Amino acid sequence: MKILIADDNPKRYSTLCDKLYNLGISKNDINIAGSTTDATNLLETCEYDLLIIDLVLPIFSQETATDC
Question: Could you count the other beta carbons within 10 Å of the beta carbon of residue 27?
Answer without folding.
Answer: 10
